[in-house]
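call fold(seq) -> tokens
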Amino acid sequence: MPTTRPRRASGQGITFVEILIVLAVIISLAGILAPFVADEIDRAAVREASAEVRMIADALERYVADTGLLPTGDFGQPSFRWLVTDGILPSIRGDDGEPRDRIDAYLVKGDRANDRFKGPYVPSVGADPWGRAYVVYVGGYARDDEGVWVLSAGSNGMVETLGPDTTAKGDDIAVRID
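ret:
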């Protein structure tokens, strides 16, 4: 004769042991999946920063082509070495408090341009995926031995790539304009 499991009386609910088993399964799955999700989030942040760095570099090149001015100060007069966006300023290797200016004054508003400004070249320029400012090393415009770098400091928050470097350093996400 076949045995049947006794049925629970209606309204009896689940046992504490059953809840523990379900929680153990959920915690195990979370532990297995968490590293994969974290890696994908990191890769997505790097892809976003790479696209925005390229966009800023393209916009700077269009600004220079249209206005005939280098974005290094009011109406092309060199007065600073870095352009920055919104966001927390990253640490910059070897930075001794060099003067900075806002990038939106050139690419969005055209405050520092002449009547040949055809922008805005980008709709807006915000912080990188880690909440820090994008930076542009414009000191290289004035020197033949240095490049102009458009950078995100990456996840470590330290700009390690400087003008004379030929490749991006550390975890910087960078495009060099020559």
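The chain has a mean pLDDT of 83.
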